[in-house]
Specification:
Blueprint: E1 13-18, E2 28-32, E3 54-58
Antiparallel strand pairs: 1-2, 1-3
Length: 66
């Protein structure tokens, strides 16, 4: 599902956002350009409570050199 066969999705990493701290239920998905962000009392995305949420990020890191 993720990896080299998914090239062309664009830059970023896929975030699966849960509206609870238990990583349970249906996740809302979006492409994040980075994982270093501050929500500042704002929801990280529509439908997700800023005080009680969890995120799973999935993706690949391609390193151009050794």
């Amino acid at each position: 599902m993720y990896g080299y066969e998914s090239e062309g999705l664009g830059e970023g990493i896929i975030g699966e956002y849960y509206d609870n701290a238990e990583f349970s239920g249906d996740a809302k998905t979006k492409m994040d350009l980075g994982i270093d962000f501050y929500v500042n009392n704002d929801a990280p995305m529509e439908g997700i409570n800023f005080e009680n949420f969890s995120i799973v990020w999935k993706g690949w890191l391609r390193v151009p050199k050794d």
